[in-house]
TrEMBL record:
Coiled coil regions in record: none
Protein name per the record: Uncharacterized protein (DUF1330 family)
InterPro entries the record matches: Dimeric_a/b-barrel, DUF1330
Occurrences of domain DUF1330 (ranges): 36-110
Pfam families membership: DUF1330
């Protein structure tokens, strides 16, 4: 299962609206021992990368039993992360400093969904 975006996926993501802010829904499924690895990644990310790119973790929590979902759609953790722009997200994942910690995230997860969201017009 995929846990990291590909270059092609990133290019399409950025080209949709490069300068628009985005809130990324993260649905995470951990490997054995993955919570500890993800915690290391998260701490390093919040300390070094988030301030550099203006990233804000809006919400982070454990997933519970779904009320409505298909089989296999239960997630271990859910995060909402705000990025100042799609371009900032792309620059962030290409940053050598980010590349030094992303292996922790990759090893921590067996599956992930990164779903960009944008506010509804009336919100």
């Amino acid at each position: 299962m995929a846990v990291d975006p590909t270059g092609e996926d990133l290019a399409a993501f950025v080209s949709a609206d490069p300068d628009a802010p985005v809130v990324m829904l993260n649905l995470l499924r951990f490997a054995d021992g993955g919570r500890a690895l993800y915690r290391q990644y998260s701490e390093a990310f919040q300390r070094t990368i988030a301030p550099k790119y203006g990233v804000e973790v809006v919400y982070a929590g454990d997933g519970g039993s779904p009320l409505v979902a298909e089989a296999g759609q239960q997630w271990d953790a859910v995060l909402l992360v705000r990025y100042p722009s799609r371009r900032a997200f792309s620059r962030m994942v290409a940053d050598p400093e980010y590349q030094q910690i992303t292996h922790l995230r990759t090893r921590a997860l067996t599956e992930a969904v990164l779903q960009p969201t944008c506010p509804w017009g009336g919100a």
